[in-house]
Structure formats: C-alpha cells, structure tokens
Sequence to fold (591 residues):
Amino acid sequence: MKLSTSDLCYSTNDAELVCDVNLALEPGVRVAVVGPNGAGKSTLLSLLAGDLHSSKGSVAYDGMDVPMLPIRQLARSRAILGQRQAEDIAFNVRQIVEMGRYVYRNDASVRPGEDERAVTSALEALDLGPLENRLVSSLSGGERQRTAIARTIAQETPLILLDEPTTALDIGHQEMVLRVIRSMGRSGRTVVAVLHDLNMATAFDQVILLDRGGMAAYGTPEEVLDSRGLTEVYEHPIEVVQHPLRPGIFVLPYTEE
Amino acid sequence: MTDTSSPTRLTLWFGGGLVLLLLTMVGALMFGAFSISLGDIVAWMLGSDTSDAAAQRVLTSIRLPRVLAAAIFGAALGSIGVVLQGTYRSSLADAHLLGYSSAAGAGAAIGFAITPVAAFPVVPVVFAAVAGAVFGVATAALRARSGSERLILAGVAFGLAILAWTGLFVLVVDSPRVPTFMFFVFGSLSGATWKGLTVAAVVVVPSMYALWRYGPGLDLLVLGDSEARALGFDTRRLIPTVVAIVGIVVGASVVLGGVVGFIGLLVPFLLRPLVGPRHRILIPASAIGGALAVVIADTLARTVAAPSEIPLGLITAAVGGPFLGWFLLRRRPT
Fold:
C-alpha cells in the first residue's frame, strides 16, 4: 500500500501542531520520525492513522482519502501502537494479541487457522511464547510493550504506525523490535515509527526530522542526521561520527564543559 | 496465574452453573407460603397429575411464573452489569448506579398508569424501554468527556432525582394500576404473571443475544476507545447502540421486578476470577449467576417473613452491600 500526504497540516485554536508535511511512501519502506518534545511527532502519526482529521491538506492510502475510509477498512489498512499501554487489564497476553485479529472476524476470506497462525507468529516474533498465559496486569512495562507490539503485528496490515515502540525495552529487546521492523519491511509492509533514540533511526530507510510541526529534514539517515541540523533542532550539541564497529553513522549527544 | 480460558474448565463451570440453577429453581418451586412437595413437582414435570389440585394450581399459575420471572430478571440484571462495566470501563458501572433503572422505572410508572391491570404490560415495557434507552444514549454521549467515576456519581444524582419525580407521580396518580413506590425503590416479583413474563422475555432474550454478539468488541474497550477504534470497533456508532439495548433490557426487567440493585455489580465481580474477562463468556456466565442469585433472593423474600413479603431489593442490598464493599476494598484489576 502506498501512503501519501499532501500539504498536511493540523492546528488547534492556539497552535499549529503539524504543517506542510508532504510524503510519498512506497510499500515496504521503513521511516523513522524524530524530533524534540512537542515537535508534532505523535500528532503526525495520528494524522497518518486517520485518528485525527487534518485541518488542511490530505492523507491517502493508495490514493484513497483516509478520513473517508470506514473504520473496518482502516483497521485492515493500518495498525497503530500507541504511546501508553493500559496496565490494569485482566486479559492474558495471548488474548490481547488475539484482539489484533478482531477486524477479520466473520470474514469468509480468512482461511481457518489463519488467526491462530498470525497470533502465534506475532507472539514468537516478540519472544512472548513463555508469557502467553500471563495476565497483562502482572507484566513488567517492557513485557506489556512487547505484548502491544505483537498485537499490532498480528493485525497484519500493510501499514504499521508505531509511537515510541522501544521506549520501555532493554537493549536486547530493542534490537529484537528492530529485527521485527526490518522483516516487516522485507515483506512489503510500510513502517512509520516515532523514535527518541536517534541511533535507532539509523536502522531505518528514511528519517523525518520534525521541528515545531514542520519537516526540518527528510531523507536517508545519512542525509538527515547531520551534526549541524540536529544541534539546531534539539538546541543541544550533537556530533554525528562514523560508527567505530560497523559501516554507518553514530549520533553522539554531548555536553560542553 | 490460573488460565481461565481453558475450554474444559469453562464447560465445567457452565455445566455446573446450569445444573445448580435448575436445582435451585426446583427448590424455589417447593418453598413458599404454601409448600409443594418434590413429588408433586416431579409428577407435574412428567406430565401427570399432582396428588393435590390446589398444589397444582399454585404451582402453574403463581409459583412457576414467579420463579421463571426471577430467573429472567436475574439473568438480565447480571448480564447488563457486565456489558455496562465493559462499556464504561469500570467495575462500578451498573444499571442501578448509573441511573438507567430509575429512568426506566419512570417510564414504567407512566406506562402502568395508562394500562389496565390485567392486560399484557406492553405499554409499560415500551415506555420503560424507551426511557431506559434514551437515558443510556444521552448519558453515554458524555462518557468520553467525563471519567467513569464522575459519570457514575452523576448517574447516582440523576437516578435519585428521577426516582423522586417517579415517587411524586405515583403519589399524585394514586391508581391501583400503578405499583407502589416501594416497587420502584426496592423491587418485587410478587406481581409476576405469565403475561408480564411473556412480554419481558420477548424483549429481554433477543436483546441479551444482541449484546452477546458485541462481546468481542466490548473486550477491545479495555485497551481504550482509540485503540478499540484502531482495531476496527466503531465506538462512536456501536456504544450508543449497546447502551440503547441495555436501556431496553433494563426497561423490560423493571416492569417485571422493579428496581433492584447489587446483582449487576456483585455477580460479574464474583465470576470474573472464575471464567475470565472475555464478554462472550462473561455475559452468559453472569446471566446464569444473576438468575441463580435472584431465584435465591426471591425465595428468601417470600419465605423468611411468610405470609408477608420482604421487598426483593432489601434482600439483595442487605446481603450484596457488605459483600460488594468487601470486594471493592480488596479489588483486583478488571
């Protein structure tokens, strides 16, 4: 599925939260959205998801205007991982991941066993097999985060929108999520992820750097993540160097003393 | 943590629950101001004549409709408790506390006032169902804006106000066609008839099935409204539908047994740890549990101080109140 936006803007009474975002994402591309707090990253994600309606401009999936799509069709087009996960839940991990298959209920075109396969493979991808019968309320923050990511993947949509998918995770599980995102891309699914860790953004195909709602830069990680631009947008000294152990760049925030 | 979703475990709970309900109903048929022997009940069930003609008359025209009414009434209260708790994402949501019952009661009072005593109570059910549904849709529209706890407090306030107006109406009209004010405060199944039971069942049973159909969607609401929408459950369209159906069920049950609290709160509370949180399971389980609770409560209501009757809601509040308080104090996630 192709995701495109044209002159996308969103404003409230007193502020313009997103302005003039123009994107044309081909299937299978992985895009990281970065920028300081309040830059409009989550708002942009909600606009791309069709959760928020733009005040100007448009979002389209395969040329179809997103606000016009019925909720069920939206749920088959894109999956969303929100920033916060509900904690006080008496459902177990597997039941939560099964919720990702809600939109395929009573659908004759879904083969028998298909839901089961999607849920099991999402659980395995996030290393949740051993936890599948645990109640969500008894999980750690990181385990809850992985459960929510597994639910998003089980939805098997061509577009996946992730708001800070790795925030609560340890380094090992952050890498695991990056591997999952990579495999999503290889299977032709588009991934847009809001990230705080700029080094994680180097693993994506494209990076959008947002600043006060606008696109300060958009391109490959090497193009967007440069010392001067980042230092300006984050208002903090940031140096981008060659990674000491592998090809590619490494982003290094530092304090001048 | 115990896995509450195992099919064997669920089959055992449901099977056991149904058997217990049937046995309790048979027991309820035996006890009352006029005792009926188990032998007479079994003989009647097998289609043969009972040894005592009076016993047979009491059984078929008084006791049986009343016990069946208790079962349907309890099933309705238990299952709508679950649905409201799912919809409002609060284990304290209940038709009684949210004001649905009072609204439906007001509709029922007006309906009773214009319906002859021996007629099928179609008009009261329609008035009560419309009042319950309108109240539900109107207040659920405010659901997104105010938190669940505030909505429940507002529901209590609205409910008390509507109850007061209903009381004024009942006193002013002063008609034998309208049940006493006590009926709208504490409920009673003493007026249960085959006619009332038929009308209520025709409304309640299909509505409960419709609510059960929404089960998987209601499950998604634990994640939050926007997550549920993202997964394909159209909250803006379906929540008003669900609460309207709940209002209709409340309407029909209020006409049958008046306003009775605690069943919709207590039964799901007790059953969740046993059968898990999924609505497709919890709705029928709470229907069985609610039926069981009300059949027992109603049997106590008509036997403890026989030949006089204790209002049903007094029993449920006297027993349910302390239980619920205790459970709330040590409550676990829902």
